[in-house]
Amino acid sequence: MEHAPTMTAVAARLTPGQDLLAELERLFAESGAGAGCVLACVGSLTTAVIRYADRPESATLTGHFEIVSLTGVLSPDGAHCHIAVSDGEGGTSGGHLMEGCRVYTTAEIVLGLLPGVRFSRPFDPQTGYPELAVETMQPEEE
């Protein structure tokens, strides 16, 4: 009986001042994988740059924020991630993760790498955005 390849994980800790999105994309690119996802992220930010639902512009929040959720799909074409952060009063904001989110004390990240799969983001004329395309790879194509 043949088994499908097993997902592998990459774990990293980001340090103060690093850009969360840029580092996610760097870690994924360095892995050489064709498809990945964010399995876990806990940490804090001093700047959160978030694009809220159905808004063309981003909002920049400054202060001290806990990362309460980060989820995303990683491809060689870039990352598509959503984040939720909470402030010192428990107020929570969330949306599309943008560049410029700066780590406060730490961001502890675990990425899942998916063998045998390649994600890409071709332009979808129906939505007007680059959208996810999933391709199953043959072992000799990986």
From TrEMBL:
Matches recorded under CDD domains: DUF296
Entry-linked Pfam families: PCC (PF03479)
The PPC domain, residue ranges: 4-135
Domain of life according to the entry: Bacteria
Name by which UniProt lists this protein: PPC domain-containing protein
Origin species: Pseudodesulfovibrio hydrargyri
Lineage: Bacteria, Pseudomonadati, Thermodesulfobacteriota, Desulfovibrionia, Desulfovibrionales
